[in-house]
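Slide 14.
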Amino acid sequence: MEERYIASVDLGTSKLAVCIARISGQDVQVIYYKESPSQGVRYSYVINPWKVENVLRDALTQAQQELKIKIQQVIVGLPRYYVRQETASASMSRTEPDSQISEEEIRTLKSMALEEYPLGDPKNDVIYGAVAQSFSTEDSIGELEADIVGMTAEKLEGNFKVFVGKRKHSANIDSVFNSMGIAIAKKYFTPGITARAVLKEEQMENGVALIDIGAGVSSVTIFKGKIMRFYAAIPFGGNSVTEDIKTECNFSFRLAENIKKAYGACMPGKLSALGEKTLQIVDENETPTAHVGVKYISEIISARMKEIIEALLYYIQQSGYSSEDVLRAGVVVTGGGSDLVNCANYIKELSGYSVKIGLPRRFFSNEGCPEAGEASAATSMGMIMAAKNDITLNCVNEAPARRYWTAPKPAAPVPDSDVILSEAKNLPVPGTDVILSEAKNHPVPEPVEGVERAEGPEPAIEESVISAQVDESTNVFDQPTEEEIKAAKIRKRKKPTGPREPRSKPQFTWLKHIQSTITKVTGDIFDDMENEEV
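Slide 15: predicted structure.
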């Protein structure tokens, strides 16, 4: 079987992780994983594309030289902060109430919900992802998708969670990779796929809250019935802890970070012998400059971690899924912050839930790359897991053309011909120097290889996350054609009055969408974060 490569880039606040996996059938082998200090990223979003590009270019160059391959496209995660959770719904009247509800109808309903979803500020907002919550008919309410398919009904309704983020944050990611000449094969809203990389199926079925403590952002994602039910994030994480150590001990940020990673712990009262140790700080001349106790470091860490944990527990309470009867699997904590000693025990003490550390599940082999199995790599491995079933994706192949959206230029009014002639008499013919001088102030953008410029309003839904292959392990749905959407709307408005004609199912053609990513977006963005929903 032909081998493929998937390259993922995790743009974190403190680290930039490049992961490359070799795919052969269902066999996934991580052949490269390396973290580099991040620059230009704040609260998980790209704030300075130029700084990010400099770091990322070096990281990808090193990976290509080591593996002797050329990376032409990558998968990348969307920001976790400045994302709000909203609800959407859609309904349709079925032309044949006695026929069974099909998966095609469910897909059409999902696309209708997103296509008709009213973004409050479409200029600045874009839909990062959506997850189906429940479906209803005139006879049944709150059914899961797996249960609604096959039922009979006159009317079908669906409820969805929609995750809306900042368009600029996504556009900055595009800017980085466009400048490097590397295509973005997919973008993922990562909380859901990170969860599926570390959580077991029974945990998501019985109810679990995943706490992901990153450097700049900490988040909580709740699953129940195998469906992502709730998401919230706060702009505090491991960097906040490091800043406290830096300030209290008068250290540099780098030294504070190294001390945190080597000796960081929660719950200073339960450190036993470790709490009695004292760290001696020396300069480049081996001269002692400071002494600090491990217990004191732990007290600083615990104070900040308590604030972070209590904020996340507050969101769990607000979610409506906080009772122990709902969260039967308790809490799983992952991300770089989970490496702190006693972190899980501290969350358990503050929350009362059972708490476990979440490491990437071993759906892959990583001989020679042990870091890929650590909690800090959960997002990278989640993206690999989400993309591996798309048999068209090979990151060493040239990517299809992508669209770069530019705002339409307003049509200039055409003046009367007499006015043009009279004004022309008074205007001198500009010389070459004048023309060149004006051209410097209005340069024509150079075309970027693999990017097609399109004029018009930008789509309301992240376009690059649509392409994926439909199978049982991913719930990424085919993008319906415009004709299919129009037909669904007609069914929604009209009810049949005459004799019924034999039903023809809409033909969803997935391959035409993955072969060309420049197809107009009409709405389906149900990405891999709900890949076990069906």
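Speaker note: The radius of gyration is 27 Å.
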